Amino acid sequence: MKTRILLPTLMVAVVGMSAACSTDTTSPQIDDATLLLSVQPAGGAANVSVSDPVVVMFDHAMGVGMEAYAALHEGSVTGPVVAGLWTRSQDGTQLMFVPTSPLKPSTTYVIHLGGEMMDANGGIVNLEMHGTGMGGTWASQTMMTGGMGGQNTNHMGSGWQHPSNGSFGMVFTFTTSA
Length: 178
Fold this sequence. Notes:
The chain is of the alpha+beta class. The protein contains 3 helices and 8 strands.
């Protein structure tokens, strides 16, 4: 019995597999990117203790220096940045914030994560998959300028703007207890 190979069919299959496996190195790879796993306190949290830690967790290591694209604001995303230090865990999967002074009671705070945060492999972090479920919202240009045409230049530059959706990262708002 002879086996026939249908060459055109085989070529189509190889070309199809090749296209499916190719990667576009000119655009950010969002689909297989590192995921945001948790934000503490989560967006919308109320009665948060002024001594509770601010911790952001990812499923893979973050790139060195990405803590520069995390901020804690008082009041709103355009409010003053709370003085303190963002640090990266030894394995790179957590960013932690320690304020210089305790947070104020009965005050609204906003955790702001830059839209172009990268993991240790240079991939854009996927904030959206779990971020919105943790109370996060995309920071729009209107939010960043306060709708008044001003510009919050500290958080609108390189590293803060998401390469695909144009947002200025994701924000998580919480309120401390009295």
